[in-house]
Design brief:
The complex is a heterodimer of chains A (180) and B (588).
Chain A: E1 2-10, H1 15-25, E2 29-37, E3 43-51, H2 54-66, E4 70-75, E5 81-92, H3 98-107, E6 111-115, E7 119-126, H4 128-139, E8 143-148, E9 152-155, H5 158-163, H6 165-175
Antiparallel strand pairs in A: 1-3, 1-4, 2-3, 5-7, 5-8, 5-9, 6-7
Chain B: E1 9-10, H1 11-21, E2 26-29, H2 36-44, E3 50-53, H3 57-71, E4 75-79, H4 83-86, H5 89-97, E5 102-108, H6 124-128, E6 134-137, H7 144-156, E7 162-168, H8 169-173, E8 175-176, H9 198-209, E9 213-217, H10 219-223, H11 227-237, E10 241-243, E11 258-261, H12 268-276, E12 279-283, H13 289-292, E13 303-308, E14 322-325, H14 328-338, H15 345-357, H16 372-383, E15 388-391, H17 395-403, E16 412-413, H18 424-434, E17 440-445, H19 446-452, H20 456-462, E18 466-472, H21 477-486, H22 502-508, E19 512-516, H23 519-531, E20 536-541, H24 565-576
Parallel strand pairs in B: 2-3, 2-4, 4-5, 5-7, 6-7, 9-10, 9-12, 10-11, 12-13, 13-14, 15-16, 15-17, 17-18, 18-20, 19-20
Antiparallel strand pairs in B: 1-8
Helix pairs in contact in B: 1-2, 1-7, 3-5, 3-18, 9-14, 11-14, 12-15, 16-17, 16-23
Classes of the chains: A alpha+beta (180), B alpha/beta (588).
Chain lengths: 180, 588
């Protein structure tokens, strides 16, 4: 099964290598790994998408926790979470197909961030499945090149719900919902 | 007017100071260009701490390991950049696999040269990332004292392991005023989980219902200083005990509840107990493949309990029914309090009958060649079980494990996880430095000893009471055994026809050498050398045809256990009929 694991780490040199090393050394299958700093510049957050059965995922979590630089490991898949991927797609846009490409981009809430004589660069964010869907459609017009970030993910406002459930119960109905 | 004393200290001085504060008495190393300033600081502080020169960095790190395993303290070694550091790799991996607390210091080329392919430069933190518990490249002298503190803390906390600190030459040589931190800035909970006492109730419940319980304890018990607690737990509950290779000595071998080592070359009784018990209590052991054999057939009738300090060991290879993580001593003491006692009469009768059927035994013909088992048994008899025994890796190691009986922890020093040939001799030197009055014996193979024998020079220089006893069969015997069994006796690369004369070799280093070719000779020679406090090399010419039995073939289960050469031959003949050239593959 596919799991999205969020790891908070001390922002030390070599920490990315330690984590990726762990996966290769123990033969775990990694789909994507994204790192970036958090609001605290000393702390980075990694989002790792990994495939494996329960035993493998259990080991992945424990092995990550064992690294000295690791602060916290959460398997987001256990709970409700938001995951997003960003893609930049350079797609052919000949005069006769331009408007069709633009229509597809609009349907997927994408943005055209660069316009050239015979191509666009399209920026799109969303769930992996949404981006895959858009790529499938754009392939018909010819994708020149493409880059994707891999999944970043964060859990939904669980803590707020737990701690202040009573207070915000009424209001939270709409505000907490998201259709993204 | 008196000038105020400068508080400026060089990086090298900081290394010495923190080590002294951490209780390091001695360390082993080999110098070189990039590490020169640090060696200089040790030279100037030789009244506070001893740095012992070795002939090879691998020797240095195995000495540090031997010291650590014999004392329980952190072993320390030091090497220069590039080749000095890469020569430590085997020892680091060995220490990681066997959970040995160890700190390795390496010199690095000056900061400004890092990444330029400078002379004797290697990406040491990169190379050692997967063979250390943690490692550091020091980038700034300000952070050096804290890094050193952390290194010792990480090495010894929880499941111990090796930590490497790579120090560029300019940082070691430059000076700064940095206060020494008192503690590591990592919480202990990172390495020692809080004990979940609620799990103990579940364990007590499982214990209450067990009719055929078995304790399977490993090296983790020794690392946790929990041997005494294990003894009390086992004695109170009356549960039989088997130990892993790494655990030997964690429970007294001569105790009536001890049923010998288990695993690939464990006793028939222990392996049968494993497959027939209804409750298996794993303590500080990790369900290694040399213990479990075929996982699907491993201890099929038992509920399983696991007590350990390392969360990654739980459910890694074998799923357990209950586990408790944390300090094993505390857990065992709590469990002992709540546990009751049973007589388990039927269970002990069954164990006795297995033992009666196939005990660990050998028959030495007084006119035949020396049996290696006999040699180990004589070493045990003559040292009254009081020696510190180290081994290399192979047949001799298994015979030593089977026939030397360890009644106390930290007297058995062997490379279990990595299986490092060449480990035992330098490890013996490290142990001899720690206990200069003890008899330290490296039970060696002729193949393994040739890997690190240059350290004879260290034995001579410091006149250490180290006795190397070679069980010489002129073969890489364990691999030969596998060739005998699984490769139709095709001895690819295992014969060692051009051996040195080990007696003359010892003499070349100024050490006494002896050779024995008959059992009587062997006894007399051993009697003589154990009376003396001098180092020596004893070359015992043993029967090259001997195999280590029992043997559970790799990937097999207890029902595949082979108990003797006759049994093996019968099996091979019956297998040979349908498939005349059948050869089972497998690594040693």
């Amino acid at each position: 099964m596919r799991h999205t694991i969020s790891v908070l780490v001390h922002n030390q040199s070599g920490v990315l290598s330690r984590v990726s090393n762990l996966f290769s050394a123990r033969g775990y299958n990694i789909d994507s790994l994204v790192v970036g700093v958090t609001d605290d510049p000393k702390v980075s957050r990694m989002t790792i998408v990994v495939r494996g059965d329960d035993r493998v995922i259990d080991q992945v979590e424990k092995q990550l926790n064992k690294l000295v630089d690791t602060i916290k490991v959460v398997d987001l898949t256990q709970d409700d979470f938001i995951a997003r991927d960003l893609a930049l797609i350079k797609v052919k846009a000949e005069p006769e197909s331009r408007s069709q490409v633009m229509e597809i981009v609009r349907c997927f809430d994408g943005k055209i961030v660069d316009v050239a004589l015979k191509s666009f660069i399209v920026e799109v964010t969303g769930k992996e499945s949404k981006i895959n869907g858009m790529i499938e459609l754009l392939k018909n017009y010819g994708i020149i090149e493409m880059v994707r970030t891999g999944e970043v993910a964060i859990s939904r406002g669980k803590k707020v719900h737990e701690e202040e459930e009573k207070k915000v119960k009424v209001k939270a109905g709409k505000a907490g919902q998201s259709n993204l | 007017m008196k000038q105020p004393k400068s508080k400026l200290k060089t990086g090298a001085q900081m290394v010495v100071d923190i080590m002294v504060e951490e209780g390091v008495e001695m360390l082993w190393g080999l110098t070189g260009g990039a590490v020169l300033p640090i060696f200089d600081a040790f030279y100037q502080n030789s009244d506070r701490i001893r740095l012992i020169d070795t002939r090879h960095e691998q020797g240095a790190i195995h000495m540090a390991e031997g010291y650590a395993k014999a004392t329980g303290k952190v072993g320390v070694c030091i090497a220069t950049s590039g080749p000095g550091a890469t020569n430590l790799i085997t020892g680091l991996t060995d220490a990681l696999m066997d959970s040995v607390p160890l700190v390795a210091i390496t010199g690095q080329v000056p900061s400004a040269l890092i990444g330029t392919d400078a002379f004797q430069e290697a990406d040491v933190v990169g190379i050692t990332r997967s063979c250390t518990k943690h490692n550091y490249l020091v980038k700034n002298i300000q952070e050096l004292p804290q890094i050193l503190r952390n290194a010792f803390f990480i090495a010894r906390s929880g499941r111990p392991g090796p930590v490497l600190v790579d120090i560029p030459k300019d940082i070691a040589a430059s000076a700064a005023e940095v206060p020494y931190p008192k503690h590591a800035n990592i919480p202990l909970s990172k390495f020692v989980p809080e004990i979940d006492f609620s799990q103990l109730g579940k364990m007590a419940e499982l214990l209450r219902h067990a009719k055929r319980p078995l304790i399977y304890a490993g090296g983790g018990v020794i690392n946790a200083g929990a041997s005494e607690a294990l003894y009390k737990f086992a004695r109170k509950t009356n549960i039989p005990v088997t130990l892993t290779l790494m655990g030997l000595g964690a429970y007294p071998a001569n105790d009536r509840q001890f049923i010998d080592m288990l695993g690939m070359h464990g006793s028939y009784r222990a392996n049968m107990a494993l497959s027939h018990c209804d409750l298996l209590i794993a303590i500080g052991s990790r369900f290694d493949d040399r213990v479990t054999g075929k996982l699907s057939e491993f201890s099929p009738l038992s509920k399983k309990i696991h007590i350990d300090v390392d969360p990654t060991s739980i459910d890694k290879n074998v799923k357990v029914d209950a586990h408790v993580l944390g300090d094993m001593k505390t857990i065992l003491e709590a469990l002992t309090k709540s546990a009751g006692s049973h007589d388990y009469d039927e269970w002990y009768e069954q164990l006795d009958s297995w033992h009666g059927k196939h005990p660990l035994a050998f028959k030495q013909n007084p006119n035949g060649p020396i049996l290696p088992q006999f040699a180990v048994d004589e070493i045990y008899r003559l040292t009254k079980g009081d020696a510190i025994i180290t081994t290399e890796v192979g047949q001799h190691q298994m015979w030593a494990a089977q026939y030397y009986r360890f009644n106390k922890p930290r007297r058995w020093i062997t490379s279990g996880g990595l299986g490092t040939m060449g480990f035992g001799f330098p490890a013996a030197i490290g142990a001899a430095f720690a206990f200069p009055d003890a008899t330290v014996i490296d039970i060696a193979g002729d193949g393994s000893f040739q890997m690190t024998l240059q350290e004879l020079a260290v034995v001579k220089q410091h006149n250490l009471n180290v006795k190397v006893i070679i069980l010489n069969n002129k073969f890489l015997g364990m691999v030969k055994q596998w060739q005998d069994l699984f490769f139709d006796k095709r001895y690819a690369s295992t014969a060692i026809p051009a051996q040195p004369d080990f007696v003359k070799l010892a003499e070349a280093y100024g050490i006494q050498g002896f050779r024995a070719e008959t059992p009587k000779d062997a006894t007399q020679t051993l009697e003589k050398v154990f009376k003396s406090k001098e180092p020596c090399v004893v070359d015992l010419m043993v029967d090259p045809e001997e195999h280590v039995y029992p043997m559970v073939p790799a990937g097999g289960s207890t029902k595949d256990i082979v108990l003797s050469r006759a049994m093996e031959m019968a099996r091979m003949q019956s297998e040979a009929k349908p498939h005349p050239s059948k050869a089972k593959g497998g690594r040693k």
